[in-house]
Fold:
Amino acid sequence: MTRILTSLLLALGTAVPAQELVFSPAETEACLIAGGGAECIGQSADACVNATPGGYSTVGMGACLDQEWQYWDARLNAAFQSVLNDAKAMDAEMDELGSAAPKQAPALRDMQRAWIGFRDLKCAYEASTWGGGTGAGPAAIQCMMETTGRQALYLEAPLPE
Structure:
């Protein structure tokens, strides 16, 4: 399934040269700083589409969406590593106390692995709803961006005490 999604993403080509792509995460970050959440996902991609020559083309939209997806993926990876480190510390502390509480670190890893599979299947389905049309690529990338952004925000949010 991941190969199908990768093929869709690669099918977009490179009609918008990288030097013409006008992407900055500023819109998304400003929204988040102002207290926004999931509604901030996609704001920088939208600004990129508006500012990039050819941004309204299928390839332009795909390129802008991909840039924001990469932004969210980096945030997700940083948040996952931070939460994993905290979980490992908590597991060690609970071990020292002799607690039989379930381990957090393995549960977090299992959850994230399952989430990756869910994301890939969800976005492959999203692409399939375009019936093989040119919108399938941007639809898949938008799904990856939104789903990854939501997971990053989930991992960045503090857990209740």
